[in-house]
C-alpha cells in the first residue's frame, strides 16, 4: 500500500475530484456525499489540511489533528473550511466555481500537496 506522498497522478486527480464533488454537495445540501473509493491508497489513514483559495489567496483553511481514511479526512476538512466561508458569505454556485482546492497530506517529511489547476473563468 502506497503512502499518501507516493500517490500516482491519477490518484491525486481522484482525490481532488472527490474534494470538488464534496464542495458542490455541501454547498447544495449541507452534506458530505456518500460512498468511498475502492483503491486502497485512497483510504490509508492520513492527517490533512485543506484550503479554499480565491483569487490566489487562501479564503479558508481547516487542519485535521487525527488520522482518518485519506479521502474522508479530505472531505471532513473541506467541509470545515467551507463552514468558515459560509459564516461570512453565501456558498453559491458562482463562488464554488471560483474556489480552488488545495490539500496538504502530512507525511514523515514535507507534506504532499495536491492542488487543483486554475479554473477558467
Concise overview:
The chain is of the alpha+beta class and 121 residues long.
Q: Care to describe what's here?
A:
It is built from three helices and six strands; from the N terminus they run αββββααββ. Helix content is 36%, strand content 23%. The mean pLDDT is 91. It is globular. The longest helix has 21 residues, at 9-29. By secondary structure, it is an alpha+beta fold.
Structural class: alpha+beta
Summarize the biggest pleated sheet: 4 strands, antiparallel
- Give the strand order, joined by hyphens, for the main sheet: 3-2-5-6
Count of helices? Answer: 3
Mean pLDDT: 91
Fold topology:
Blueprint: H1 9-29, E1 45-46, E2 48-54, E3 57-63, E4 68-69, H2 70-86, H3 93-98, E5 100-105, E6 112-115
Antiparallel strand pairs: 1-4, 2-3, 2-5, 5-6
Helix pairs in contact: 1-2
Supply the key terms.
121 residues, alpha+beta, two-stranded antiparallel sheet, 3 helices
Amino acid at each position: 500500500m502506497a503512502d499518501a506522498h507516493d500517490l500516482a497522478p491519477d490518484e491525486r486527480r481522484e482525490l481532488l475530484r472527490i474534494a470538488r464533488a464534496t464542495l458542490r454537495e455541501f454547498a447544495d445540501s449541507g452534506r458530505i456525499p456518500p460512498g468511498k473509493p475502492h483503491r486502497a491508497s485512497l483510504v490509508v489513514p492520513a492527517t490533512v489540511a485543506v484550503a479554499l483559495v480565491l483569487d490566489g489567496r487562501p479564503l479558508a483553511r481547516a487542519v485535521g489533528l487525527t488520522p482518518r481514511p485519506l479521502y474522508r479526512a479530505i472531505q471532513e476538512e473541506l467541509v470545515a473550511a467551507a463552514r468558515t466561508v459560509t459564516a461570512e458569505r453565501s456558498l453559491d454556485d458562482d463562488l464554488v466555481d471560483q474556489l480552488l482546492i488545495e490539500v496538504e497530506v502530512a507525511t514523515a517529511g514535507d507534506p504532499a500537496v495536491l492542488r487543483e489547476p486554475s479554473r477558467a473563468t
